[in-house]
Amino acid sequence: MEQVFYLINEMSPFLLLGFLLAGLMHVFVPGQVYNRYLSGGNFRAVLYAALFGIPLPLCSCGVLPTAMSLRREGASKGATVSFLIATPQTGIDSIIATYSLMGLPFAIMRPIAALFTSILGGQAVNILENENNKPIEPKGNRNHTKDSENANLSIIKRLGNALQYGFVDMMRDIGKWLIIGLVVAGLITVFVPDSFFMTFADKPLLSMLLVLVCAIPMYLCATGSIPIAVALMLKGLSPGTALVLLMAGPAANVASILVINKVLGKKTLLIYLASIISGAILFGLGIDYFLPRKWFIPSILNTSAHCTGTDSFQWFNLCCTIALVLLLINALTLRFRVRKETSCSQSSCENAHCDNITALSSTKIFDIEGMRCIHCAKGVKRAVAEVDGVESVIVNLEGKQATITGTMSDDDIIKAIDKIGFKATNHKKE
Predict the structure, then answer these.
(1) Band (305; pLDDT cuts 50, 70, 90)
(2) Dihedral angle, C-alpha 321, 324, 326, 331, nearest 10 °
(3) What angle do CA 421, 424, 428 make, to 5 degrees?
(4) Which whole-number Å values give the CA distances from 133 to 78, 188, 251, 259, in the listed order?
C-alpha cells in the first residue's frame, strides 16, 4: 500500500491538471474542426489526424466509435488509421502524468513516437489500399449537435460542462483502469525480484518482443500504463522497453483488433499492427542504443532522493491526492448508481405506457458487445438516435445494453451499431 500511495501522491497534481485540460478541450474545441481536415487520401489528412489525436484523452476502446464516426463523416481510411494509432497512445492527461513520474525526456518521446507510428500506418494505408481509401460521402451535420449546443451556452455553463467531463465523465472512464495500474505497479514493486529483468540486460530486443506479446492483447489506458512502466523500470527493465510498453499497451487490445478487422478489413488491420510494433521497437532500440540512459531515469527516483522538500509542496501534493481519491470514489460510486438507475428506468419503460410515445411504438433492449467507456456509450447512443423511427435511447454502459423506443426495425438498429464497431443482439429474457 505504501508504494501505491507514493505513486498516487507524485501523480495526483499532474493528473488533476490533465483531467481539467481534457475537459476544456472537449467543450471548447468544435467537432467540425476534426472532420474538416481529415478527408482525402493524402499525407495532409494523415498528418492532421495524428496531430488531432495526440492530445485527445481517448483510450483504445473509446477511440473506436470516434474514429468510425469520423470515417462515416468523410475521413479517408488512411486518416482514420492514423487517428486510431495516435489517439490512445497519448493524451494531454497522460503526457502530463508521464512527466510527473518519468521525467521530461519520456514525456517528449511519447507524443513523438505516437506521431511517427500514426503517420507510418496512415501513409501505408494510403499507398497499399489506394483503391479502397476514398473518403465516404458525409451524411449531413449529425455529429455537430454538441457544437451547436455548446455555442448557445454561457461561458460559465461551458466551464461547468468542462469540469463535469474532466472530473466526472473521464474519471468514470479511466478511474478503474488507473487504480488497477497503480495496484499492479505496487504488486510488481513488492513481488518481482530486483534481478528479474537483469536477465534481459544484454538482450533488449528479446525483452521488447516479450513486452509486445503481453501488452498488445491487454487493455491498458495511456495513463494507467505509466505506473506499471515505472515499476518495471525500477526492477531493471530498460528505458526503451518501457517505452514499448507505453506505446503498444494503450495503442491496441483484443477489442480494437476485432473491430478494425471487421470495419476496415484484414489488410488495414495488419498495417495497423505492423506500424505499432515496428514503431515501438524502432523507438525502443533508439533510446537504448543512441540516447544517454541517465535521461530516462524515472523522476520519481529523483523525488525520493530529495524527499526533504518544502512543506508547502508536500501539503499541496497531499491535498491533490485527497481530491483525486475523492473524485475516484465518486466516479466508482456513479458507475453503480447509474447502473441501478438505468436498470429501473429500463424496467419502467418496458411496463409503462408513456403519453409521449405513439401507439405503434415499442420498447426493445439490445445487448451490446465491446462498450468499455463513456465515449463508447455516447457513440452508440448517437448512432442509434440517427436511425429512422427511434424516439428515445437509453444506453447502460455498465450493463452493456441499450433500451430503444420507437417504430424502428431491429435490423436497422443492429446495422447502425455494427457500423461503429460494436455488436448488437436482441436481449433475451431469462
Answers:
(1) very low
(2) -160
(3) 160
(4) 7, 44, 22, 18
What tens digit of pLDDT does each residue of 390-406 get? Answer: 888 988 887 888 899 88
CATH class belonging to 339-426: alpha beta
| Separation CA 245–CA 195 (nearest Å) | 19
Distance CA(46)–CA(147), nearest Å, equals 24
Task: Give the start-to-end residue ranges of the domains of the chain.
Answer: 2-307, 339-426
Kindly state the percentage of the chain with pLDDT values over 70.
74
For the segment 77-122, what is each residue's pLDDT rounded down to a tens digit? 899 899 999 998 988 888 998 998 888 999 999 999 999 999 999 9
Measured CA to CA, the distance from residue 237 to residue 244 in angstroms comes to 11
Q: What mean pLDDT do residues 255-259 have?
A: 75
- Three-state secondary structure of the chain: CHHHHHHHHHHHHHHHHHHHHHHHHHHHCCHHHHHHCCCCCCHHHHHHHHHHHCCCCCCCCCHHHHHHHHHHCCCCHHHHHHHHHHHHHCCHHHHHHHHHHHCHHHHHHHHHHHHHHHHHHHHHHHHHCHHHCCCCCCCCCHHHHHHHHHHCCCHHHHHHHHHHHHHHHHHHHHHHHHHHHHHHHHHHHHHCCCCCHHHHCCCHHHHHHHHHHHHCCCCCCCCCHHHHHHHHHHCCCCHHHHHHHHHHHHHCCHHHHHHHHHHCCHHHHHHHHHHHHHHHHHHHHHHHHHCCHHHHCCHHHHHHHCCCCCHHHHHHHHHHHHHHHHHHHHHHHHHHHHHHHHHHHHHHHHHCCCCCCCCCCEEEEEEEECCCCHHHHHHHHHHHHCCCCEEEEEEECCCCEEEEEECCCHHHHHHHHHHCCCEEEECCCC
What average pLDDT does this structure show over 298-325? Answer: 68
Q: What is the largest CA-CA distance in the chain?
A: 73
Does 217 or 244 have the greater pLDDT score?
244
Residue with cell 429512422: 388
The confidence band for 276, taking pLDDT boundaries of 50, 70 and 90, is very high
Query: What type of residue sits at position 248?
Result: A
Which residue, chain included where needed, has cell 478511474?
A: 175
